[in-house]
Specification:
CATH class of the largest domain: Alpha Beta
Bound molecules: NADP nicotinamide-adenine-dinucleotide phosphate
Number of strands: 10
Strand content: 15-25%
Structural class: alpha/beta
Helix content: 40-55%
CATH superfamily of the largest domain: NAD(P)-binding Rossmann-like Domain
């Protein structure tokens, strides 16, 4: 008897961005015996992964090697073409003979790059990969990350994802997961004014059948991914949500990312727990969390539910997180661009559209944006 959980034909899943998050979640999805084939687009770590796969050192699943179905050095190499002879890899097939994109396109394209809309238009970059059947999944921090994808791909399902994981690439092709696995998924329609679930759409005036179909496909893709991650990948906290719930989770996560991350850079390099030992910084962090809670209630139309941690709870758990450096600080120290737009700029702009000011976030945004600009203009790299 056919296994109802096993797709009858191979499902081709492509991760764009083979960093910490991409490699970890790709490795937990890949399941060839169930026809789930996961591939990676790598960049600076392409040679290492093409040669030996990804070596994972995980708190949750032990140490193992992940051999993706295929690894590509660029988006163009992963772009399906009717003429295999024109594939960029055809020029050098010996280098990676297995790395040909699926002829009929990618079923899922999962974006796990850092979200840097001020640097790259990632939606435009991935456009050659997207076919009518592709579901686009975004596993990135911040808010407003989906909008460029929705405007460019109005007919493709989009799944928005927030992860609570602590992972890092410690050298090319070697990824360490320190703790946590949670991934929260939700469909993305046309922003929060659109129906958030098939049942919502029945009660919402929306004459556009195409829009409803896209949202319904998003739901189906989300359910499928969550099931595969849970059943095959052991990610028991792969959770599905409505669009509004997922956007609420995105805004709530800002209470950590928009509070501790910018402060880590501006306070001279202090980690989360260390920041909280300073009474002035502690007051500043608490103030940011309250500002986000207030703005989110206006943007989302309702306050955060009690199930999401209060500022006091976040502070108590951050006090135990000694030694950890926020990713924005690591990016700053390494001279890499910081995720300022999606963590600070977008919330300020989205709230402003609803008539709400976020003066604390706006100050952090203005200062860090300027610091980054000045450093780049001076051609400086690395630590302050
Ligand atoms: N790491 C965590 O614990 C964690 C936890 C929660 C959420 N997040 C969020 O998850 C997202 C991903 O974070 P991450 O930690 O995985 O970042 P990361 O380790 O820096 O990985 C991003 C990867 O994307 C690659 N990339 C960027 N642009 C590309 C392009 N055009 N083509 C091919 N590859 C490209 C980078 O390649 P290069 O190395 O060549 O630049 C890098 O390997 C971020 O939004 C982050 O805030 C991370």
């Amino acid at each position: 008897m056919a296994n109802p959980d096993k797709p009858t034909k191979p499902v081709h899943i492509l991760f764009v961005g083979a960093g910490a998050v991409g490699c970890f979640y790709a490795s937990r999805l890949h399941h060839p015996s169930h026809n789930i084939l996961t591939s990676l687009i790598a960049r600076s770590n392409y040679s290492a992964i093409a040669k030996s796969g990804v070596s994972l050192q995980t708190h949750s699943f032990g140490d193992y090697t992940f051999q993706p179905h295929a690894v590509f050095p660029s988006i163009s190499a992963a772009t399906a073409t009717d003429d295999p002879g024109s594939s960029p890899l055809a020029a050098n097939p010996a280098s990676a003979p297995q790395s040909l994109p699926p002829k009929d396109g990618w079923d899922y394209i999962i974006v796990t790059t850092k979200a840097l809309p001020d640097r790259n238009d990632d939606a435009a970059l991935i456009a050659p990969l997207v076919s009518a059947k592709s579901c686009i999944v975004l596993i990135q921090n911040g808010v407003g990350v989906e909008e460029p994808y929705r405007s460019r791909f109005p007919h493709n399902p989009i799944v928005s994802a927030v992860t609570v994981v602590s992972a890092e690439q410690i050298r090319n092709g070697v990824v360490r997961q320190n703790r946590w696995t949670r991934i929260s998924l939700g469909p993305y329609g046309h922003g929060l004014s659109a129906p958030s679930s098939p049942s919502d759409s029945a009660s919402t005036v929306n004459d556009d059948d195409d829009d409803k179909a896209v949202v319904q496909r998003g739901h189906a893709c989300m359910d499928q991914l969550a099931q595969w991650w849970a059943d095959h990948g052991g990610i028991r906290d792969a959770e599905t949500h409505t669009e509004l719930e997922l956007q609420t989770i995105r805004w709530h996560k800002l209470c950590i990312n928009a509070a501790f991350n910018p402060t880590a850079v501006l306070s001279g390099g202090r980690g989360n727990a260390d920041q909280l030992t300073d009474p002035e910084l502690r007051e500043h962090i608490t103030g940011i969390m309250h500002e986000i809670r207030h703005a989110a209630a206006q943007v989302l139309g309702k306050p955060f539910p009690d199930s999401l941690a209060s500022p006091d709870r976040i502070i108590r758990s951050s006090e135990r997180n000694a030694g950890a450096k926020p990713s924005m600080l690591l990016d700053w120290e390494a001279g890499r661009p910081m995720e300022l737009e999606v963590i600070l700029g977008n919330p300020v702009r989205i709230a402003r559209r609803k008539g709400v000011d976020m003066p604390k976030l706006q100050s952090l945004y203005a200062l860090l944006r300027s610091m980054q600009k000045v450093r780049e203009e001076r051609g400086e790299k690395g630590k302050l």
